[in-house]
Amino acid sequence: MNALKGPRPNEQRKFGRRAVAIHATIEVECRTIVSCVVRNLSEGGALLELIDTVALPPSFILRLHNSDAKIPCMLNRSNANTHGVVFEQINGAAGAAVLRAIRDTKDAMTA
């Protein structure tokens, strides 16, 4: 579901997406490897945009700039500098961070 235009006719995602612009970092083996911007977000995954074209590993940790939560991600697709990810385990602090980001975006759109 596109937050601004309604559902897409061929939408196959389990969760509706919400357009966002959240700064984050991608970590592999406890090291930050690259900064990114989360461009859309749902309870099940996200679209990440990187400044440069970077090959990402099959799995990594995503950290939203306003949270200490570690969100385990699995790479779903890549296209130049954008990468679609699926959240592997969305519970605890990671789940709360994602839901808070979605809620904050929803609140900003209605304000």
The low-pLDDT segments are 1-9
Briefly note the structural class of the backbone.
alpha+beta
CATH architecture assignment name = Beta Barrel
CATH superfamily: predicted glycosyltransferase like domains
Percent of sequence in beta strands: 35-45%
**Cα gyration radius (Å):** 13 Å
Strand order of the largest sheet: 1-2-3-6-5-4
CATH fold-level label: Thrombin, subunit H
Question: Helical amount among residues, as a percent range?
Answer: 10-25%
Shape assignment: globular
Task: Please characterize this protein's 3D structure.
This protein is α+β, with helices and mostly antiparallel strands. It has one domain (18-110): predicted glycosyltransferase like domains (Thrombin, subunit H), CATH 2.40.10. It is built from 1 helix and 6 strands, in the order E-E-E-E-E-E-H. The protein has one helix at residues 92-110; strands at 18-28, 31-41, 45-49, 59-64, 71-79, 82-87. Strands 1-2-3-6-5-4 form a 6-stranded antiparallel beta barrel. A hairpin with a 3-residue loop joins strand 2 (31-41) and strand 3. The relative contact order is 0.19. Mean pLDDT is 80; it is low at 1-9.
